[in-house]
TrEMBL record, chain A:
It is a multi-pass membrane protein. It catalyses: L-proline(in) + Na(+)(in) = L-proline(out) + Na(+)(out). Keywords: Cell membrane, Ion transport, Membrane, Sodium, Sodium transport, Symport, Transmembrane, Transmembrane helix, Transport. This is Na+/proline symporter. It is found in: Cell membrane. It comes from Papillibacter cinnamivorans DSM 12816. Belongs to the sodium:solute symporter (SSF) (TC 2.A.21) family.
From TrEMBL, chain B:
It comes from Papillibacter cinnamivorans DSM 12816. This is Uncharacterized protein. Keywords: Membrane, Transmembrane, Transmembrane helix. The chain crosses the membrane at residues 9-28, 34-53, 60-82, 102-122. The keyword Transmembrane applies.
């Protein structure tokens, strides 16, 4: 890569960071309470919330990891694109009930909704907070790792310098403006990702001469050798299932759709919307913008593979560089937007989970332990926790390699194991008891930790199913079965206002 | 509890059983069939969540819910069909430029936005009308007032 290209890319990437900082600074005037600081409750319209939701849901993994995994597994990973429809599915199932809960009292975090539904059950709030905290830190850590690798490759910076500069700025604007700034910067970052998607898709069709040519070139390439590396290309990689045909494939069909419903990035945005009747419009914005971003990932992976198959570039040393190799071949404009998209994906997801994790530490855990803080103190504590947590996560990510690898096992699946017992079952079924939900969460917590250790030791699960599918099934069935035999916070014992919200 | 609550209860219990069924099917190698069982599970969640005061509008059931369900059942049927047809060899034709099997993933993907997202927007009043929302807000306001009187 030429020196000029490096400078242009670095300037644009920093442009995204600086604009995010300015948006965060500007939006602090909208931040007036714990509700707005931790949850942007009932503050925004469908365009900003829709774009922000999409951006927070699409992490560095979506933009860099999916093309990289495609280079290894083929289309198995591209089943991830199915989540475009998952936004509307999630809103149809839970949107109005979740938003209706925000009318019952001051809602700042998901833990507050859980407290309203389950008579302020301390155990539910505590275990839920621990699970969300662990998965949030795992996500945050992955974003830090992705960005430090990227800037190391681009500017030759050390991981510590990259992390402190990029995430230092993120910590500053998130601490200043809380989730209000977080949401608005995420909307901006989502817009950048959409523009990058359009540019990469056009570039792909120009470089390859069309999808059909790319598919046929890859399907007939066989083995390609260059630079001491041999890459075996198979037509199986291009069919609907990709190289993996087992439980993993099934999980990759289920998880992008119904799994999206269990993501805090989706659930918490349901109550950030001012008017719940705008939720269908928000779903449309999130879905359509996600179409562009997910197709970006598809064409970047396919494009890199096509370039290798046609002998235009050498087989990749590192699969995760697929999107970078493709954009480098296309040219400077494509490169600039690729890097801008990756950094946008990292920042949007990181700010979402930094707010989420600090909300759990500053509000939900103390509340579960019986410590009450007034609203102003909550915001102050939230800010301090954000800064400490942000710096601690950077240090942890860069210094504890094996622990980070273990922790990043958690994430998408862990969120589902925490949110399904509480919100999906809890808000859809009046027969869901607090004892049932508590037991479901307890099973989730124990199994998430056990599985995290087992996965790090290389344990494989039956049928090639990802570990979290087993934990989700077990936590759900435990919640249902225990609820059938217990009585707390269910049926007629429910707060009539909660019943009204659930009837919507 | 009302009849609609009981129906929701049955649906939620069934979805719990289906989660376990899907997991076990994957364990024993029936992952492809498991995909169709999971679609039924998602359908039940959609029906349960879309109900308004215990009732689901028929036109909302048709579009977006059933339209999406039928599209995905057909699409994933064809993903499997074309995958089996060309497994181990290059496809002899493409669909929309893609491997025919992946083309049906593509159709399911874009189709889910055209059914679920667009249908949800078009039929939004059947999911939650302004009147329903205002009635709910008034009800909560009334209940909160009664609650505060009770506390005093």
């Amino acid at each position: 890569m030429s020196g000029g290209a490096r400078i242009a890319i670095a300037l644009c990437a920093f442009g995204v960071v600086v604009v995010s900082l300015l948006i965060g600074w500007w939006s602090k005037k909208k931040m007036s309470s714990a509700q707005s600081f931790f949850g942007s409750t009932a503050l925004f319209g469908p365009v900003s919330v829709g774009l922000a939701t999409m951006a927070a849901a699409a992490s560095v993994f979506a933009v860099m990891g999916v093309p990289g995994n495609f280079y290894v597994l083929g289309n198995t990973i591209n089943l991830w694109i199915l989540s475009s429809g998952g936004f509307a599915l999630s809103y149809i199932i839970l949107g109005k009930k979740m938003r209706a809960m925000a009318e019952l009292g001051p809602i700042s975090t998901l833990g507050d909704v859980a407290a309203l539904r389950f008579e302020n059950h301390k155990g539910i709030k505590f275990i839920f907070a621990i699970l969300i905290f662990l998965a949030s830190i795992a996500y945050l850590s992955s974003q830090i790792k992705g960005v430090t690798v990227l800037f190391g490759y681009l500017l030759g910076w050390s991981p510590l310098t990259s992390a402190l500069v990029i995430f230092g700025i993120l910590i500053v604007y998130t601490a200043i403006s809380g989730d209000v700034g977080g949401l608005l910067t995420q909307a901006f970052q989502g817009f950048v990702m959409v523009v990058a998607g359009i540019i990469l898709v056009i570039s792909f069709y120009m470089i390859t001469g069309g999808m059909e040519n790319a598919v046929m070139t890859i399907a007939n390439a066989g083995e390609v050798t260059g630079g001491g590396i041999t890459k075996a290309l198979s037509p199986n990689m291009l069919d609907g299932w990709g190289a993996a045909t087992n439980g993993t494939t099934m999980a990759f069909v289920i998880m992008p759709m119904i799994g999206l419903l269990g993501q805090p990035a989706i659930l918490s945005r349901m109550y950030a919307l001012k008017d719940p009747r705008d939720m269908p419009k928000m779903g449309l914005f999130a879905s359509v913008s996600h179409l562009f971003v997910s197709f970006l990932a598809v064409v970047a992976g396919m494009g890199a593979m096509y370039l290798v198959a046609s002998g235009r570039i050498l087989p990749l040393e590192n699969a995760d560089s697929a999107i970078l190799a493709f954009s480098e071949h296309v040219g400077i404009v494509c490169q600039v937007f690729t890097y801008a998209a990756v950094i946008s994906a990292a920042l949007s997801t990181a700010s979402m989970f930094l707010t989420m994790a600090s909300g759990m530490v500053a509000r939900d855990v103390p509340d579960a332990l019986g410590m009450k803080l007034d609203t102003r103190k909550q915001v102050t504590v939230g800010r301090v926790v954000m800064v400490i947590l942000g710096i601690a996560t950077i240090a942890f990510t860069l210094k504890s390699g094996s622990m980070v690898a273990m922790l990043t096992t958690l994430g998408y699946g862990t969120f589902i194991t925490a949110t399904f017992p509480v919100f999906v079952i809890g808000l859809l079924w009046k027969g869901c008891s607090k004892e049932g939900t508590f037991c479901g969460l307890l099973v989730s917590l124990v199994l998430n930790i056990v599985c995290m250790i087992l996965v790090s030791k290389g344990v494989k699960w039956p049928g090639g199913l990802p570990w979290y599918m087993n934990v989700i099934a077990l936590s759900i069935i435990v919640t249902v079965v225990v609820s059938l035999f217990t009585k707390g916070a269910k049926g007629n014992a429910l707060d009539p206002r909660v019943q009204a919200a659930m009837d919507l | 509890m009302t009849g609609s609550s009981n129906k929701n209860g049955i649906f939620v219990v069934v979805t719990g059983i289906l989660w376990v069924a899907v997991t076990l099917m994957a364990w024993y190698g029936y992952w492809y069939q498991g995909i169709f069982v999971s679609l039924v599970m998602m359908l039940l969640y959609l029906i349960t969540g879309a109900r308004l005061n215990g009732k689901l509008d028929k036109s909302f059931m048709v579009y977006p819910i059933l339209s999406w369900f039928v599209l995905w059942v057909v699409s994933f049927g064809l993903v499997g069909y074309y995958s089996s047809m060309f497994r181990g060899s290059a496809p002899t034709f493409t669909l929309l430029g893609f491997h025919p099997s992946f083309a049906w993933v593509f159709i399911a993907w874009v189709g889910s936005v055209l059914t679920l997202s667009l249908g949800f927007y078009i039929n939004r009043d059947k999911w939650l009308s302004r009147k329903d929302w205002e009635e709910y807000q008034a009800k909560i306001k009334r209940m909160n007032q009664e609650l505060s009187k009770g506390v005093k």
